[in-house]
Amino acid sequence: MNTFDLTPPTDAQRRELSAGLSGDERRVLLEHGTEAAFCGVFLDNKKDGVYTCRLCALPLFRSNAKFDSGTGWPSFFEPFDVAHIRTIRDASYGMVRTEIVCARCGSHLGHVFPDGPPPTGDRHCLNSVSLGFTEKGQPLPDVLHRGGAEAAPAE
Fold first, then answer.
1. Alpha-carbon torsion 29, 13, 59, 3, what sign?
2. What is the pLDDT of residues 60-79, one digit of tens each?
3. Is residue 36 within 8 Å of residue 58, measured between CB atoms?
4. Which ranges carry the MsrB domain (predicted)?
5. How many Å apart are CA 36 and CA 154, to the nearest integer?
6. Which ranges of the chain have pLDDT less than 50?
7. Which residue of 13, 27, 51, 93 sits 20 to 30 Å from the alpha carbon of 141, by its own alpha carbon?
8. Going from the N-terminus, what domains does the chain have, and what CATH number goes with each?
9. Residue 108's beta-bridge partner residues?
């Protein structure tokens, strides 16, 4: 059972959260851009914790699902909870791919490909600027002030 509130942010909350984004974060999260390969802050992160949506802070991936895909972007074989991401058919740039977005706020995260490791065979390829990170044992960010699971320590 999902204990996180997946209700989208209000328009006022979205404006407030968007105002704090850098130009690169805005381009990727809100305009479906992509950061350059091999430069993201989380590519080589080996800490234990939870990766969250940079905009709304919904937990997206656990560090124990992260693997080195060699692609230049942080990659994960399974999400924190399948309800926390949505997939969208992306036919941009002459390719057909599966885009992944935050299920709560709709921010662009990256793409998922069927070439990952067991047990899922999936490679969720993410932009570092789409993510936040909370070390294990630290409280998850509660940027929407919802309390409950939102402010619990990262597992």
1. negative
2. 999 999 999 999 999 999 99
3. no
4. 14-136
5. 28
6. 1
7. 27
8. 11-139 (2.170.150.20)
9. 101
